[in-house]
Each structure stands twice: as C-alpha cells, then as structure tokens.
C-alpha cells in the first residue's frame, strides 16, 4: 500500500512537471497498476499503442507527429527522458538509411541547383535575425541560436552552435522550443501549399530543404509529396547541414569564444556512403528497398517522439518574443525562396 501511494505521488509529480492535468480521468491514467509482477500506468499503455501504430504501413510522418502532439497535450509523455535521448540517434540512422534509395548522379545535380540558394539564404537569415532580434530586445545568444536553427538545420544546428556560443540551458531550451513548434507547423502546411501552387517534385524538394528548419520535418514533408521531392530535399538539406562547421567557426570568432569544440555532423558522411554504395555497387541493390523502408519507419517514429515532447508547458515556456523572431525569419525565408524557385527552377 505504501509503495502504491509513493508511486502514485511520484507519477502525479512528474505529470505536473510536464503540465498535464492529473484530476478525474487523468489521475487514473497516471495511477500505477501491477500486472504479471510489472508496474505500469494507462498512459504508458496509450504511448505504447501509438508507438506500435507508427510502426505500421498506415502511419505517415504527419500522422505520427499529430499523435505525438495529441499525447503531449492530453496524458503526457511517460518516457520523456528516453524519447529525448533516442530521437537524435534515430533520426541520424534514418537519414543514413534513406541514402540507400538515392542516386549519386541525381544528388550531385540537386546539390548544384541548391548551393546558391543555400549560401544566400543562410547569411541572409543570420543577418535578418540579428536586426529583428535587436528590435525585439532579445538576448544575443537566443537570437543567434534561433537564427542558426532557421538558417541551417533546426535542432541539430542549435545543438552544435550552443556549446560554441557558451549558451545557457534556458537559452538552448528557448531556441529548440521555437524551432520545434514551427517545424510541426511546416510539416502540415507545406505539402498542401505545394499542391495548390502545382509545384514540381524538384521545386517542392528544394523549397522544403531551404524553408523548413529541421531535417526530420524536411524529410517528412518531402516524403508526403513524392519520391523525387524526397531525394532532392534530403540531398540539399544535408549539404546545407554541413554549413554548421563554418558557421560555428564564425560564431566562435564573432562572440570571441576560445578553445571551444565544434560538433561535426558525421552522420552526413554515412548518408553519402550509403548513396555511393547504392549507385556504384550492383550487389547492394536488393538491400536498398529494405533499408529505405526501415528508414521511413524510423523517421515516422522520430516525428512521433518529437511531437510527444512538445507539451503545453514547453510551448508556453518559450515566451512570445522568440516565437515572433522565429515566425518573421520563417515567413521571410519561405516566401522569398518560394518566389525564386517558382520563377527560376
């Protein structure tokens, strides 16, 4: 009895920390029960059922993200620390797996088309972010983190630039929270816009790579649009992600940080290797479809985990000004790149 009471209190405390309602039916969802000697809660069962569904052919990246968001806003994520630790690695392995479905020659062509957009949009976003952030009165670290996340590759860029910047945990949380919320919106909004504007697969893939922050949402939106869009978006986005290195070096110089360690996104080289194997090693051809299928499942689960981490508390804790900065940067880069792509590609 004492064990059950203590367990119930600990689960309730965790739920309150996540900003989840623990009254009425929600209290029953958080109350531990014992079956076959194992303690579990009903919200853990709900999480498990959603996760299993994400492994089936009926799930898609947008549906998985929606399920994660639904879980986060209602019963809460019972495995927050685990999903947070697992998400990054799962995304990396999924991206590498997608490389087994891509052709190196087509990727080089896509990279050539996207390089000018990449350079202009990255430096344009960082410059615009500086002035808008100054106008809003935000701290330099928060402004730079959100700007880098928007300009390069979302959460990965923030995670790499933060230590170089010497950013505090709260500043990192604000940057990540802003980017992930806008990521979720982009995943749902971009495919309908692309269809409404009758964008080609190539155009849409290029637009996703430039205008959507995080690699997970880029790949998810492009996969919903078509295979060619997925190939273009993934290639251009990963080439864009390599700009973490020069931007991190520039950050260390501008903010006068010495002796910092720059985090290189090595998984990109795994993606390139997988693509080269798929293109130039005929014996590996039968493996390609299997790896791509597993990668798409991994991406779907990744987006479920990301959605499950966006609780109401996380969204509210960011504050309005960082969202204003993020939205301004996002709208400018989205509309400007869309205009150029529709008229030049």
UniProtKB/TrEMBL annotation:
Example of a GO cellular component annotation carried by this entry: plasma membrane
Entries under Pfam families matching the protein: Cons_hypoth698
Predominant subcellular localization, coarse grouping: membrane
Location of this chain's protein in the cell: Cell membrane
Coiled coil: none
Keywords: Cell membrane, Membrane, Transmembrane, Transmembrane helix
Membrane topology: Multi-pass membrane protein
TM helices/strands, residue ranges: 45-70, 90-108, 114-133, 145-166, 172-192, 204-226, 238-255, 264-284, 290-311, 323-342
Family listed: Belongs to the UPF0324 family.
Name of the molecule in the record: Putative sulfate exporter family transporter
